[in-house]
Design goal:
By secondary structure, the chain is of the alpha+beta class. It is built from four helices and 15 strands.
Length: 261
């Protein structure tokens, strides 16, 4: 089981959570789909649920709440980048054309977070770990395996993320697709929106590893989820892009076994 025990290096995706209108329905859905365990959290954390896989944190589920005077945000998954200093990172985001949507705030003794939007409109979070490092299970069935930036303007996005410690380089064998790296290690991917439906906004897409893409998609459909891109084979494995029953978009992939790509 791929476990994470150390703090994530700054710039590396370290956590994901989903915000939905019906938190309990989402907990039930992802329990059945991925085997997560979780329950509505205590009032002091806003009911936030830290879901576990094999007893270790894997992702969060939270109820969508309308900000003062504003509409309730749509259902969505949010990816968080590790940082050593949330406030300093948020300052760099503002200096480089991004927008801080939720300023830095402490989450008890667990860490300090913020939510931001890059200059092309893709939303992501920041996480400065204290007692909670983030996901402790990755790269296996039901856990995050890949984070992908889909952006309307790669030339604007590239220098923006470089200021957060993320470099961009062409990915061998994948024309038009770039690897995102931190310290020389690939931590995600990036591409333009040329192959996306017209009107698709810039966004980060979270991929979850699965043992069987087709059977996972079948189970999702039976649970009233939707298929946006049916299962297909590509260089990294067999993947699909889907929505949970409340509309949050994510991808699933059965990765190609090491050494067979």
């Amino acid at each position: 089981m791929p476990e994470v025990t150390d703090r994530y290096e700054p710039g590396v995706p370290c956590w994901v959570d989903v915000m939905v209108p019906d938190q309990q329905a989402a907990l039930d859905f992802y329990k059945d789909l991925f085997g997560w365990q979780g329950e509505v959290g205590p009032p002091e954390t806003g009911g936030y649920s830290v879901c576990t896989l094999h007893g270790k944190p894997v992702a969060g589920v939270m109820a969508a709440m309308a900000p003062d005077g504003g509409p309730t945000p749509p259902p969505a998954w949010t990816m968080y980048l590790a940082t050593e200093d949330t406030d300093a990172a948020a300052h760099r985001i503002g200096e480089n054309g991004g927008t801080v949507m939720v300023p830095g705030m402490d989450v008890m003794d667990l860490g300090r977070m913020a939510v931001a939007k890059d200059p092309t409109g893709a939303v992501f979070g920041l996480w400065q770990a204290k007692d909670f490092v983030g996901a402790q299970v990755v790269n296996e069935h039901g856990a995050v395996i890949w984070s992908e930036l889909n952006t309307s303007d790669p030339e604007i996005a590239e220098p923006f993320y470089r200021n957060l410690g993320i470099e961009t380089a062409p990915m061998e064998g994948a024309p038009g697709y770039n690897a995102l790296t931190v310290g020389g290690r690939t931590i995600g991917g990036a591409q333009g929106l040329e192959n996306s439906p017209p009107g698709t906004p810039s966004h980060w897409l979270t991929y979850f590893a699965v043992d069987d893409t087709d059977s996972t998609v079948d189970a999702l459909v039976r649970a009233d989820g939707s298929v946006l891109v049916p299962p297909f084979d590509m260089m990294a494995g067999r993947m699909a892009v889907v929505q949970d029953p409340q509309g949050a978009v994510f991808a699933v992939i059965r990765p190609v076994p090491p050494g067979t790509a």
